[in-house]
Design a protein that fits this description.
Order of helices and strands: HHHHHH
Structural class: mainly alpha
Number of strands: 0
Number of helices: 6
Strand content: under 5%
Shape: elongated
Distance between the termini: 36 Å
Largest sheet: none
Radius of gyration: 16 Å
Length: 101
């Protein structure tokens, strides 16, 4: 396997995982398998840590239309609203709670 084939397969696996997450399908086994695949690619020199992160970001953006950091922020705000019983957060229409891209 060459570097380009590896990157293509890593992207495919990540895209599938993120698509399943979006559909609320459990992905623990696939996530662990892909994580191992990415580590193996780094170990074999097919991809650097930076390139692996770029592949993750691209697949995530292609599925969720936002970066990993943006989605994490949204999840954090939602979790905080649940924990503090801040119902005003949920009065805001969903499209307005999304970060501007």
């Amino acid at each position: 396997m060459n570097a380009e084939n590896f990157k293509s397969e890593a992207y495919r696996q990540l895209f599938d995982i993120f698509s399943q997450v979006k559909e609320k399908i459990p992905v623990e086994q696939a996530k662990a398998r892909t994580q191992g695949f990415m580590y193996a690619g780094q170990f074999m020199g097919l991809v650097s840590q930076e390139e692996a992160n770029q592949i993750i970001e691209q697949a995530h953006f292609d599925v969720f239309s936002m970066s990993v950091a943006q989605r994490a922020e949204i999840k954090s705000r939602k979790k905080q609203a649940f924990e503090t019983h801040d119902e005003s957060y949920f009065d805001i229409p969903t499209v307005l709670r999304q970060p501007s891209l």
